From TrEMBL, chain A:
Protein name according to UniProt: 4Fe-4S dicluster domain-containing protein
Organism: Streptantibioticus rubrisoli
Pfam families xrefs: Fer4_22 (PF17179)
Keywords: Iron, Iron-sulfur, Metal-binding
Superkingdom per UniProt: Bacteria
Residue span(s) of domain 4Fe-4S ferredoxin-type: 256-288, 338-366
Listed InterPro entries: 4Fe4S_Fe-S-bd, 4Fe4S_Fe_S_CS
UniProtKB/TrEMBL annotation, chain C:
UniProt-recorded name of the protein: Cyclic nucleotide-binding domain-containing protein
InterPro entries, sorted: cNMP-bd_dom (IPR000595), cNMP-bd_dom_sf (IPR018490), RmlC-like_jellyroll (IPR014710)
All copies of domain Cyclic nucleotide-binding, residue ranges: 5-74
Record Pfam families: cNMP_binding
Organism: Streptantibioticus rubrisoli
Length: 381, 273, 156
């Protein structure tokens, strides 16, 4: 990966130009915008659609927009969506099958060309989430070709986090607030007496080429320092933490803990946490036929491990029939067995599951409680 | 006939196969033989499974119970919409097949050792090609004992063949004509000639039976790492992407279905894992 | 290599028990005892197969379990009223050690340590095992699960 040459500084007009350049390169630009009382990810046609002057107020089970006097465009934390909506869409056709008059079957793989996305405003935690999805969907013995096609074509503009929310814990998960590798361009928003501007670095050759087309000036020491300081300050303002222990071992040690009953008393098994999680990837297959009966399609759609039928056995019932077992599966998989299956944690500390849980179940609170229960039981750490 | 483009992923998109033969095993169970219409799938190894698609209905994982060149055989029990459609297939019908998927029995690792095959019900199906492999090269192995439990004499799979193998068979519910053993399959262990420390065991059947058999074998001195069991969980994609088949740290479609008792013991001991 | 009841006993207990044994043999299809009759003998099967059965009017003798090499045939002799719960019919020629039940019971009373050890072995290796086996079969694991009739979720 290129280290991107010299950092530059752009202003809001430069950001408008960035969107225009990306559109001009035939890309579908997806970024944050205010819609229906939330900051959502949607197709952007210009910089004026960015959520300038909007922040969010977050708590367990609570999400509210609030105006910001400073006019910042990226001083909000994760909304209800994540980039998986675009890379790993909620419903997708995988193949079609035709049955000829002679009874022969012909299968055709889905071949619509993948869209060329440009993701604008990818948070460091969400960039790590994309990396997690890469490992799940393309890192095993069988790669998901559709996902890979979209992923390889996607242009990523990361924005470092300077305004963590009350439900954020990326520092505990080692995923933010500073941006890690994997971006084409990385921005840091700086607002002070010298104006509203963005420090920009390129991470790839394409990033450099795009940056070269933008109105810019070389990065000055003051902007660099301000950017660095704002990210460093953000690290100290995390709303949540995870217990400072090996979470994978914690999950393995507490499979029969009492705490699961406590969490489950509040869990509605609605699956919201799995829908908003930027790494939850589970799907189910659906087979459909048309009225002639000779044309069939295979679709897959997002599925949640909270669904009772998720573990339905042929000729039997569901393996995880109790809500307790389904909540336990979600949490132990996310921060425990994900390591065994895909070589990393499945949690990036974005806090979405806390915010969008209708009963406010907090993954960090549960982990702390499990840790306390284990400690009380005298288990080794 | 459509020739599929070579870059098509056979892990995701089925390949057309023709039903070349079908035979009734019992009231609800049939064995179907499948031959490729065009290019065959890569070779299957005993213990692995295919995703077999009934047109317009769906696909389900079926272990291979016979491998003869490009010809695959599967024993299917009618328990739901897709398995019923596959069970009812007639010769000449086309189906779609994906695979091969999953871990194998790994017979080679048992070279020079005594072999103990313990099967319950339809769990005999994935073990059949393993037995074929041993019988094709008996000089590579020590004693072969095949122990089979069935519900009734009429439910015993591959009855003719099983007689030729010299397998010990026990049933839960005998009929008037049954002169053999009655009882659970683990009771047959007393009658099998095997030396536990020199034995590799292969076990498949309902999970309760697997747990009982593996525990008993470990108690008798078979190394838990040498007890290989084939497990079952829901599978949709078979490619490790859908998440349904998780069993603790295992993605059973990828890390299974065949795992060692060392791997299985702890995950099977947690309820609803 | 075959593990039977005898091999599960400590050597001294094995010798103690075999002191009461005498060799016997039966051809196939011989009824050794009937349900309800006096349980005054028991056997350790050396080779052969015996069916335990229950007579059901109109259905005949229904076999519930078979006893083979190395297994103990009969435990009703250990408990009052010393009557067989099931019938026993040889399926093949059988070679066995035969024991006189009152004699062994008396010896167990006389040597409580040996008696307890034998009692424990029968509890674990014979009664316990058969109870576990009966419970497992009660689950009808190989049969269809008739309580639920669909396969893997909705609309498949």
């Amino acid at each position: 990966m290129a280290d991107g040459g010299a950092p530059a500084v752009i202003d809001k007009a430069g950001l408008d130009a960035l969107i225009a350049v990306l559109l001009g390169r035939g890309r579908t630009v997806i970024g944050p915008t205010v819609r229906d009382g939330a900051i959502v990810l949607a197709e952007l046609s210009g910089g004026d659609e960015l959520p300038y002057g909007w922040g969010v107020e977050l708590e367990a089970g609570r999400y509210r927009l609030r105006g910001r006097a400073d006019g910042a465009g990226f001083a909000h934390s994760a909304g209800p969506q994540s980039w998986k909506t675009f890379l790993h869409p909620p419903r997708e056709r995988q193949w079609t099958a035709e049955r000829g008059a002679d009874g022969e079957l012909a299968f055709s793989e889905e071949r619509t060309p993948p869209p060329a996305f440009a993701f604008l405003g990818v948070r460091p935690c969400d960039l790590r989430a994309i990396e997690v999805l890469d490992r799940v969907l393309t890192g095993g013995p069988h790669a998901d070709a559709r996902y890979r096609g979209r992923r390889q074509r996607a242009f990523v503009v990361a924005v470092e986090c300077t305004e963590p929310g009350a439900t954020c814990f990326c520092v505990s998960m080692g995923t933010g607030p500073a941006v890690g590798p994997g971006y084409d361009l990385a921005l840091t928003e700086v607002l002070d007496h010298e104006g509203h501007r963005f420090l920009v670095r390129a991470g790839t050759e394409e990033g450099e080429a795009v940056l070269a087309e933008l109105p810019q000036r070389p990065a000055d020491p003051a902007t660099r320092t301000a950017a660095r300081e704002r990210v460093a300050e953000a690290a100290d303002r995390m709303g949540r933490t995870m217990p400072p222990v090996d979470l994978r071992t914690l999950m393995r040690d507490t499979l029969e803990a009492e705490r699961w009953n406590d969490a489950t008393a509040r869990c509605l098994t609605c699956g919201n946490c799995t829908m908003v999680c930027p790494t939850c990837f589970c799907t189910s297959t659906e087979d459909i036929t048309d009225l002639t009966g000779d044309h069939a399609e295979r679709w897959r759609r997002w599925e949640s491990c909270f669904d009772l039928d998720f573990t339905h056995l042929a000729g039997g019932g569901s393996v995880r029939s109790s809500p307790r077992s389904r909540y336990r599966q979600w949490l132990t998989h996310k921060i425990g067995t994900w390591h065994d299956q895909f070589g990393s944690s499945g949690c990036v500390g974005c806090g979405r599951c806390i915010v969008w849980c209708p009963t406010g179940i907090d993954i960090t609170e549960e982990a702390h409680a499990l840790n306390a229960e284990r400690a009380a039981a005298g288990q080794p750490r | 006939m459509t020739i599929l483009a070579p870059q098509v992923s056979v892990a995701t998109v089925p390949v057309p196969y023709r039903v070349a033969g079908c035979s009734t095993e019992s009231a609800d169970t049939a064995t179907i033989a499948l031959e490729p219409v065009g290019s065959p799938l890569p070779a299957f190894t005993p213990g692995q499974y295919a995703m077999v698609y009934a047109f317009g209905v769906g696909d389900i994982p079926l272990s291979v119970c016979g491998i003869d060149g490009d010809r695959l055989t599967h024993t299917v029990r009618s328990v739901g919409a897709t398995s019923r459609a596959l069970w009812a297939l007639r010769p000449g019908t086309k189906v779609g097949v994906r695979g091969p998927f999953g871990t194998a029995w790994d017979l080679r690792s048992a070279s020079g050792r005594d072999l103990l095959v313990v099967a319950g019900g339809i769990g005999l199906a994935p073990l059949r090609p393993l037995v074929h492999g041993v019988l094709a090269a008996p000089e590579h192995y020590g004693q072969l004992n095949v122990l089979i439990g069935a519900r009734t004499p009429g439910d015993l799979l591959y009855a003719e063949e099983v007689r030729r193998w010299g397998a010990l068979v026990t049933v839960d519910r005998p009929d008037a004509a049954w002169t053999g053993d009655v009882g659970v399959v683990t009771a047959l262990l007393d009658r099998a000639a095997f030396d536990p420390p020199r034995t590799t065991a292969f076990v498949c059947g309902p999970e309760v039976m697997i747990r009982a058999a593996a525990r008993e074998l470990a108690h008798r001195g078979v190394d838990p790492g040498r007890i290989r069991v084939s497990l079952e969980r829901t599978m949709h994609c078979a490619t490790g992407h859908c998440g349904h088949c998780q069993l603790g740290p295992l993605l059973l479609c990828r890390d299974g279905p065949v795992v060692t008792w060392t791997q299985a013991q702890s995950v099977l001991s947690v309820r609803e894992l | 290599m075959t593990e039977g009841f005898l091999s599960s006993l400590p050597p001294t207990l094995r010798g103690w028990l075999l002191g009461f044994a005498h060799d016997t043999a039966f051809p196939g299809d011989i009824r050794l005892f009937e349900e309800g009759s006096a349980a005054d003998r028991f056997w350790l099967v050396r080779t052969g197969l015996i069916a335990l059965d229950v007579h059901i009017p109109g259905r005949g003798a229904i076999v519930v379990e078979t006893i083979g090499d190395g297994e103990l045939l009969g435990w009703s002799w250990l408990f009052e009223p010393y009557q067989w719960h099931l019938g026993a019919l040889t399926r093949t020629a059988v070679q066995a050690y035969e024991f006189d039940a009152p004699q062994v019971r008396a010896a167990m009373d006389e040597d409580p340590a040996a008696g307890l050890a034998l009692f424990r072995a029968i509890g674990d290796q014979v009664i316990g095992r058969r109870l576990r086996s009966a419970r497992t079969r009660l689950l009808d694991l190989y049969g269809p699960d008739t309580s639920r009739a669909y396969e893997s979720g909705p609309a498949r």
